[in-house]
């Protein structure tokens, strides 16, 4: 295999980082030159040929299509008594947006996006937001998989695209797209102020039929952070929530005062205060004074809103982890994690708990990746429409009306795996129990096992259906989903236990889970694989360089792999400074080098590796995977292949076109089938 790799020259390049001299022999692979593009294409051709060798590619793709039938649906948005949703016609060239009287009614088309795509792929609707009066629809359109999107406006009555939309580019959908003013005359939105690669953002106000101006929010101005403006029908207040992973309402404005300015609200808070404007109060889930969360109310006209002593506690901290609130008519639905499994309680507008909503099983509610995005709810509907899945059954959509006993099924799950769910835990070196779930079929042990994990950014890994992981189980594999510290599954303390200077704890947790699976006989090291994406891709890189003997295969996806080089990228510099350390401190730089997979590569025997990245990824740019693959290919002293496929027109995942994502999943699965020797490709059963 080594002789077949496209040659990768080395260069005498050194980076001086806070006085620490760091060699970078594959720096040239950071550039988007013709030489790099040709090298990348040859790597992709080699990877595709290698993963499908001896297999029926169409059978693998058919399994991916069967499992994709259970993919998470895009939930409809409510406004003025009607529901707006995105529809991708089977085999159609582009999605359309329809409006209907029911969440999934037939409706009529109000936005046809035919002809809006690029590169032969249909465009992706990153977000959609109807105006409160239902007359204008705003949506974000991405055409290259990068998540960068632009605002389009449509007249709902005629379906005609309107002119005069803002020209600014939105970096992603993480700030919810646009936030309409209660009177539907305009909206706030967060957008880039310059080139996307510079990653500078600001809040703007756009008036329909008028212009677009920067909004002078006094807290966080000029930051690379994310800010979302929240409003509520019938309330005079606007709130600016700041920070994507741990939102805080940093500023407030009285919209009834034409000359009123923004004033600071909750500032200087390191915790999370994530809620909604409810009348004259901001009702929020917070971990301030409660690591697992509590619900509080903060008067919007408070003299000192930043002092928690002035907050009213509505729901105290308990045994579950409180995650988010959703306004529903005159109620608030409180989403919680009970040992990672979803629980939903119902509050009235005063904050009193009035009941608990039954769920279809032990699984997860669909939720945005980051808490800030979950605050972009728009006008609250009278019913709670939600998606729910488990690790063994795909997404269904349900509706619950306050006061009713059971939710109504709107769309049933399309796929049920012939598998069972088991719970387990491994003991970390410091004595902490690290939970995991096992999804397995009828096969015995030792089994081909794939560990999927993340453990970062206060983001919870949930017991939910993922088509690619379901396809692995349907092909005869056993899935282990591990809940490592650094994630948000068990509250603030669980997250902070592997944050910044304690990042290494996440990696120790992963090794503890892997060794526990080996010790208990579920699998052996020649049948054990690991996968993770983004920061989880970095986790994979550390695992395969530090403990290569543990794994038969490692599959980093859209990975971050060079922490030092990442500081030259404005977006990753922002992320690394928040979550990893200070690259201006030489001691911190040395610590980062000990956690950076690209720098950890030394000659040795490595497991089979399949690196997958997107050419238009603005978060973990493809050069991370390119540099790491080149260095690992040169260092490999074993027989296992080191494969790299950078997919064109693919980004970090959220805006990748469906056909490209399906091709990525099929190749990823084929690599696992061949490497682990899975028993065969079979389709999961319908419900």
UniProtKB/TrEMBL annotation:
Q: Does the keyword Protease apply?
A: yes
* SUPFAM superfamilies registered for this protein in UniProt: alpha/beta-Hydrolases (SSF53474), Peptidase/esterase 'gauge' domain (SSF50993)
What are the record keywords, sorted?
A: Hydrolase, Protease, Serine protease
> What is the organism field in this record?
Nonomuraea roseoviolacea subsp. carminata
Protein name in the entry: Prolyl oligopeptidase
Q: Which domain of life is it from?
A: Bacteria
Q: Does the keyword Hydrolase apply?
A: yes
The record's listing under Gene3D superfamilies reads:
alpha/beta hydrolase, Prolyl oligopeptidase, N-terminal domain
Q: Where is the Peptidase S9A N-terminal domain?
A: 8-365
Q: What class of enzyme is it?
A: hydrolase
Residues annotated as domain Peptidase S9 prolyl oligopeptidase catalytic: 469-676
